[in-house]
Every structure is written in C-alpha cells, then in structure tokens.
Amino acid sequence: MGARKMSPPKNKNVREVMLAAVPSLRAFAISLCGNVDRADDLVQEALLRALANLDSFQPGTNMSAWLFTILRNLFRSEYRKRRREVEDVDGSYAEQLTTLPEQTSRLEIDEFREALKLLPPEQREALILVGASGFSYEEAAQICECAVGTIKSRVNRARSRLADILSIEDASDFGPDRETRAVVNVSGSRRS
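Given the sequence above, the corresponding structure tokens read:
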C-alpha cells in the first residue's frame, strides 16, 4: 500500500491522476493533523491550490510528490496560524467524545497513534512519508526540502523511538498477541 509514481501518463488526464492520489493524501493529512474532518478539508484545499497552480507543475515529474508538498506546506501554514489558539485546555470536551475500544487491535492502533504523536514532527513526517506512504527516501527528501541523509536519519530515529515507546524488542512483538498466535499456529499445523 505505497504511493505510486503519479506522473500523468499520456492516456490519463490530470484530474484522474489527482483523484488517484487522494487516498494517500488523505492518510498523510490525517497523520499530520489527527482529525479526519480537518484532514479532508486540508486535502480539498491542497487539491484546489494544485489546480489553481497547475501551470507550475513540471510535466514528467512526480505529481504525487508535488501534491504531497502542497499539502504539507498548507498544513505548516495553518499550523503556524493556529499555534496560538487554545482549544479545550482541560480536555473535558474531548472526553465526552471518546468511547472505549471494543477490540485489542483497536487499542493497539490507538497506542500506536499516541506513540506517533510523541515523535518530533520532522521524524513523524519522514516516517509517514517513507513507511506509510511508500515514498522513496529521495522523494521524501524532495517533499521535505532536505537532504536524503537527513530523511534517512529521521526515519531511523523515529523507528527506534517508536520501538522504545511501544516496548518492541524484536519482530515477534508485531502482530497478534501470544494467544492469537498460538491459535493461528495450531490451525496452520492442522492444514499441513
């Protein structure tokens, strides 16, 4: 589930290429702002800006990276504007909106999201671009306007920090819990 090169092929129009990038843009926007509604607004605004500035897109380059750059810059601009705003300081409103998760996997996803929020913004952004969105280190460096080595360093530090936060020691700590793995292993051995 990685990002694909979105340079407009000759047989597709720009609109189709932009629409194909929307799911990845939306996932990136959600990871940046943590709010689905706000993320949708951010994606919509990024696409509107892209269409308004389509003449600045260089044909033959990666349109997906161009769209991600627009979205990232838009988020950063909004963040600077909202940085001074204070909303729900004591968290009482947010507590009214939360519900307890019904499954262990939901708890793990929530735990991961919380751990992701603890990363410095630059590390989180690099990890999401490379790990979740499927961009190469070079593409992520272009989007973040920094050196490839800087992106590699940020991703490595982010992965290490997440492993520390989530108490992950090795690959066996990923996936289902011990009980679920035991059931899967028993079922798998019966088929053999």
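The longest helix spans residues 14-33. Try to locate this feature in the token string yourself.
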